[in-house]
Amino acid sequence: MNFNLLSTEIATALFGSVLLILSLVTGKDARRGLGHATLAGLLVLLLITFTQYGINSGGFSGTWILDDYAVFMKQVFIIAAILVVFAGKSYVEDFTGNCNEFYVLMVFALLGMMGMASAGDLITLYVSLETMTISFYILVAYNLTSGKSAEAGLKYLILGALSSAVILYGMSLVYGAAGTTLFAKMPPVSVASPVLLLGAVMLVAGFGFKIAAVPFHMWSPDIYEGAPTPVTAFLAVASKAAGFAAMLRVFLGGTPVAPDNWLGIIAVLAAITMIIGNLVAIPQTGIKRMLAYSSIAQAGYILVGLMAADPAGVNGVLFYSMIYAVANVGAFAVVIAVERATGSDEIAVFGGLWQRQPLLASVMTVCLLSLAGIPPMAGFVGKFLLFSAIMDQGIYWPAFIGFVMSMISVYYYLRVALVIWRDEPKDPAPIAVESGMRLAVMAALAVTVVLGVYPAVLSDLSLAAAKSFFGM
Amino acid sequence: MSNEAVYGIMFYLVSAVVLLSAVAAVTLRNLIHAALFLAISFVSVAGIYVLLHADFLAAVQVLIYGGAIPVLIAFGVMLTRTPGAAGSNPVNTKTYIWGLGITGALFAVIMLSLLKSKFAMQGLISKEPSIEGLARLMLGDFLIPFEFAAILLLAAMIGAIILARGGEAK
Amino acid sequence: MPNDDILLRIGASLRELFAGVLPGPDAVDVAMYFVALIACVALIFTNAVILILAERKVAGFMQSRLGPHRLGPYGMFQTVADVIKLLTKEDYRPQGVDKWVWAMAPVVLFVPPVMVYAVLPFGKNLVPVDLNIGIFYFVAVSSVATIAFLMAGWGSNNKYSVIGGMRAVAQMVSYEIPLVFSILGVVMLTGSLQTSVIVEKQSGIWFILLQPVAFVIYLIAAAAETNRMPFDLVEGESEIIAGPFTEYSGMRWAMFFLAEYASLFAVSAIASTLFLGGWHGPSFLPGWVWFLGKTYVMIFVFMWVRWTFPRLRVDQLMALCWKYLIPVSLANILITGIGIFAYRAMGG
Prior knowledge:
A: 2 strands
């Protein structure tokens, strides 16, 4: 057994356990220290992942795959986690009661995501998916004195359990039809039995829930709204990316499939996700709900990359996941700061933000523009990669829908920008930004702008990762 | 009577118990009764495992679904409900037709695809003791999910304690 | 038969008898299972009578009094008289109970102990059903008893009964963990879950010498699993007036008693299987006599404990399990593993 394939995961598990012991032996006064320890540990993990590029091999009887694709995805998760901890540290410190285990659960959720990116068979995939999801159930309900948080936790638990059941049923059908749980040995769909197809459809539905694709998106606005905002950011970004990582493994990682057979489902999902997500985002008045619908729409764009089912498409998915993660966490970081200062998450409280805190105002604007896909922000490059991948195959309509919907999305993204820059602040007091938050938003700003102007830094890496995914 | 026929009869008997008690678990108005019927349904599934020579799985099923899960459910009901258990599991009659239609359609799809598929059934049931093979699989081929499950349970346990202890008022 | 054990001889002649009447070897096997079942049930009933008398005598001895002594020599027929009394009592159902749940609870409680007897290795080749997951089967089946307590507690529609039922659940679910962990130490040594193999491997040395910590943990956890003093919080006569049993009388109440002693015998028999070498012993007596003898020694130990220690409080009960027994049993597993590894490394 080659444990080098597992070094990131072993380090993460160890780190989580050490953090658990630390949070147990230190008292409530050590909150700040624990946040710093978490950051340090996550940075070390990020460094470890860089040593894993180029290994490109599988092990453990095929249940574990470590290719550049997996490493890239893991970096997306870790970077998202780092930004979330930077931005959310003070928010977490505000929790009443014992907040020490918050970071432990975050690290365990991260571990689950890593497993999803590297899983080589259905069982590994399911167990790591559950590791992530169960950690999230608790994180969502973590604001123990808030009724909204409890409600969100309960909803997420019930709906998440339902979707897990659907995934599990789908997996059992796939196993029954294929006789194996290994993706590498799955029979191509063209020769598949109806049961295999049924199982695949159930998997689409289950993963559709995890990535909040329409019509499996109903949970996300309520839960994004009720959950503690750092958790919402982590959920919207990392959990969604992990869902995509797993989805790609399941549907593209096995034997090459006949695309026309099942990609139709993905196409329909992508189309309605883009349309509904963007249209429903327009009338929202709460920033968290608006971002929830926006992230539904973003899932639709990424699904277009999955539809392409070739290295260019996977490249788009990887690149866009990273960009989306950074921009979305950046936006959520601003929401966290404003929410802490004003106690509200209505869009209206952003009025005149530029007078109160110019840094937050500009970061918010840049991140929203990136999410809308306006050049020269990185989001534009991401969308370009996604849509050109599908257009290279001669299929134009998803790209067309994507373009139209991106235009529509500009409306509600810019509406927030408008409130920020045009309206007079109700309360002109400046909003304090502490150092961690400052770092997080600056990083998000820098990455979004730099990658928009000079995307090759990342796209070379993601292209290599995408090629490794197809064994090229 | 041949062995096959005996197995067939046993299978249908056990399956009937599983299904009927599952129906009772859904339709009974008293939540405690529903939970107990759910337990019967779960334990009867162990009977199916025995018929398939999956002895270890059957024992696990009894241990988890006979000993732990129904107790957990009943415990939850007792801790949250006032004594009036008679109508504690109301049936939603308003959307009856919709529910029936959707589940019926889903059932039809699943049954059709099951009937139209061929399964490789030869050699899947081994009469050898299953536990050694299971141990080898868990600590060999499927080592990673096994270890992940450990982390999963740890996370779940921490979470249960956090949520059960609740927050302190500001 | 080469073995001149009387029980084996009876078994063999029964088998011959069935073979003459029934078609095929499968049917004979099934018939033999029924014989074993009947034998086990008979054992449970006679045992209960003996154990109740023994308990009262031991209690009397511990408390410097005589115990039952009127009926028959040394009061030997007292329990028989009690059984007749219970059987002839009116079958009374209190108003307001949840009829079916209430009525089924004693029956459900009686099932797991009976099923456990299937894997008890009474002697060499004398295991009713020699499952290869024997010990795990014991754990799985006895866990179902929890639900019976819950049914009795809930069905009685009585607050003390519900409290008792809840205590039963908390206690039995918690103590199952150290119980299983202590068994695991022995299983690691033998590499098998089959009860007959476990006994077979103790021909040289009894596992109580190799696993003393596991033995102690097993004793404590088994006492808690069977709800015996000092862990009888479920009944707690002085606080919750017999808990789940409050609303039962006559034969139904006797069923609870029967189940309690059946499971007392079962856990003692498992203890002698796991730790005391089962049927092994000097060969002037047949194996099953040794097995029963060791089991009765274990039962005596349980009675001794019962009449010596006061009852625990609920929080003490939970603290004992979660803070002491479980960590210690985990450490025991770890040390056992290291020990086995070291033993193998030394070429043993």
